[in-house]
Structure formats: C-alpha cells, structure tokens
Amino acid sequence: SNNTGEKKVSSPGGAISPPSAITMTPPKQQKSLADVSGKLFSPDRSIDETLPVSSVHIPTSPLAAASPGTKKKKLERLDWRLPKEESMSDWTIFVKVSENVGSKDISTDVEDTYHVHKIVLSCGARQSDFFSQKLSDGCGFCRVELNPSAARAFPIMLDFIYNAASDLNATSETSVALRYLSQIFGVPELKKKATSFIKKDFRTSTAPCYFTEAHIFNEVKLRAAACNLCAASFDEIKSTDMLSLQPSLFVDVVSNPHFQARSNDFCIKVADVLRANPGSANAELLCAVTANEKMPIINASESLFFIHLGLEHFLPMRSDPNEDL
User: Fold this and answer.
1) How far is CA 316 from the centre of its chain?
2) Residue 107, Cβ density class (10 Å: 0-12 exposed, 13-18 middle, ≥19 buried)
3) Which residue in 67, 117, 192, 203 has the most C-beta neighbors within 10 A?
4) Is residue 162 part of a domain?
C-alpha cells in the first residue's frame, strides 16, 4: 500500500498492476419468481397481462426451470375436459347420481366432478341461465343431482356450451336426456338441437330406446308415439333392440291397440325380454303377455322356459297345489 490508500494487486509474475487494469465481474443475480413467470409467458402478451404471478405454475425441478428451451404449453381455448391444473378452471360442478326406484329417489355414492369456467357458462348464445344464477351467489362450486341417464348426457351438454360453432353430439340414448337438461339448466339452443335430432332419428329400430327414455323423463307425446310404433312394427324390431324395454313397458307395447305380431316370433321376444330382466316376471305380467290372443302358440325352443315360469308364479296361487294342471 502507499500513502494514498490505494491497494496494489500482484500479477502472477510479480509485477504490480495499477487499479485501472483490473476488471471486476459483478456476481450473477438469481432471477426472481416474477422474472421467470414473465419469461415463460412473454410470447403471448394476452396471457402475460391477465395472469397474476400467483396463478403461474413454475416447474419444481431445478433442471426444468433452468432449461432455456422449456416453454409452457399455450392454452388455445378454455376446455373443461383438460386437467384442472392445465385448464385454469375457476368453478366446480359436482353431479350426484340418483336412481329412481318406484316413487323414491335413491342416491348412490357416485359423484362426478367437472372443473369449468364461469365466463363460458354465463356468457354467449349457449349460456346456462341456471348456472348464471348460481354464479351470482358467489360460491366456488355447485352441486346438482341427476338420474343416471341425465348424468351420462351432462358432459355432452358441457361440450355443446363450450363449443359454440359445433353441432350437438347426440345419440338415440342421450337426445331425450339432453332435452331434459336443456330445460332444467336453461339452455334454449340445446333444446332446439336435441328436438331436431329426435325428429330425424326416430324410426322403427330406435323406437324401443325412445320409449324407454321418454318414460324416464315423462315425455308424454314422445312416449305415446314410440309405444305405438313399437306395437305396430313389432315383428320388424330385433330382439336385441327390444331388450332396452323394461318388462312393464313391454306389457304396454303388447297391450297397445296397434299391436301386431306373429305368434312364433312374439314368443321368442317375450322370453328374451324376461331373461334380460331376471326377477321381473310376476303373475300379472305373464297373464298379459301369454294370453291366448297374444300367444296362441309357444315355440318349442322356449316351452321349458315358460313351463318353469308357470310353475314358479302360478302354482303357489292354486288352492290345491296337488291338483292337475
């Protein structure tokens, strides 16, 4: 050192270098969370400007965070089918499934969860009046209870609401349920589309399915039309299509004034329906479907099946079980 207080630095060769020749490199500063999040979203200014830092998912792996080629996947549109951490969902719908047995609703432990977006459900041509009202309550979730058929169609309704340019992805099995959902959740456009689909899809082969679904949702006119078509075209309907009918609905078809059937085929279809619904047969049902004017002849291949049913349901009713049949 000298009298001026300046510090001399020795080079490896022993010579003294003046302070001006020394270049000091400042320590590299670690990037803050805000720096990292801003860099991740800088290609898309709309996301960068609207997302708070707290909502940004930063990779926990130091290697992933430090990799210069790592980019966060761009969210092109809001989609309820994406995992919650990717969809940026801000609301949740819980759908509990309940089975209607007789006049009682029996709830099950099945509950489906849907992570959705408030802006989609409450805005646009396909908005839901029901959910718009629920959103105004300020709660972060909503619980609804639906029968199994309506619960199966619920995701299709969400797809319809989310994709304003798409058509309705309905089927014979879901279209009646979708019309029901359109009414309880207030989506008028969904009702129009579902009704249009039913009119185009309603025919002999789909009549049993529409009869069942119309019965579930109390669609009186559709139920009557489907029952009439099932009765008038009974021989044209395959046994596999008839299996969608509950035995009680099958009796409604057989009792319909438009009913026409060849006795041999009728016998086989009755047996198929009863086998598909074990335990559903009773004396009243058997009397209705095996009446002489309906089934004057029993097919040989089904004779033992009907004898067994007769012994099971009619023999206990006889005053003298030992009396000859």
Assistant:
1) 46
2) exposed
3) 117
4) no
